[in-house]
Amino acid sequence: MNTELKHFIPLYLASDPGAYGRKAFNLALLARSGFKVPRGFVIPAGTPVASLDGNLSSDFAALGAGAVAVRSSAAAEDGTAKSFAGQFDTFLGVNAAGLEAAVLACLASASGERAAAYGGGAGCRMSVIVQEMVDAEISGVAFSCDPVSGARGTVIIEAVYGLCEPLVNGAMTPDHYAVTREGFQAKEAVVATQGECLAVSPAGGTALRPVPEELRSRQKLGAEELALVAAAAIRAETLLDKPADIEWALKGGKLYLLQARPVTGLGDLK
What we know:
Blueprint: E1 9-10, H1 17-20, H2 22-32, E2 40-43, H3 55-63, E3 68-74, E4 91-94, H4 99-108, H5 113-118, E5 126-132, E6 138-143, E7 154-161, H6 165-168, E8 175-180, E9 186-190, E10 196-200, E11 206-210, H7 223-240, E12 244-251, E13 254-262
Antiparallel strand pairs: 1-2, 2-5, 3-4, 3-5, 6-7, 6-12, 7-8, 8-9, 10-11, 12-13
């Protein structure tokens, strides 16, 4: 569980949302509750930039990951009122050579124009998550309720081949599934043809790769995978005590949770 880390806190111990941000806090909660959450560590808000040099590379080496994701974790992020989704910078497939630059850029995005406009001009207290990269075969998002209508009897799941970033930023059309909470039966499945997917690049960062011809028009999730993702969304809802929005990844038959936050815009619905 990353006990060999010497400088920054292991992700699963991020139990203070004020110090480590709400995203890290939620991921730590998921990890301690038995979900597969990629290993990582958190650079607390207020950490002097001068302390990154050396300490960052040391803990990266101790993590033992070939590549990592560098994600924001602001105190105001992933809350019940505002999610700040897409307002801060995320870097995927980061290697040792690019780690410090990615962390500094992530920190700088806390004072960027997007975040300031979204937050009403308020500054953001930013921590940074450095997390083992999952080079997903299939990934996506899921909501434990219908995020548009608020209906509680349905889990909404969206999925793409490869990494989830093109889905999240709207660059790629995903498969769309509506699954019943009872029995996890698919009552709607809209399949999107996908010719290429985003994957981790051996040189660092990410790159688009072609999807095999025989998979391009195929439904990405079968009944077993839909049930696995839907059950995870409902379990996350129980942990957060609010309808949940999760980001997930499938690799080697295993389901990883990359993020969990309350669904915003539902008022007092629980």
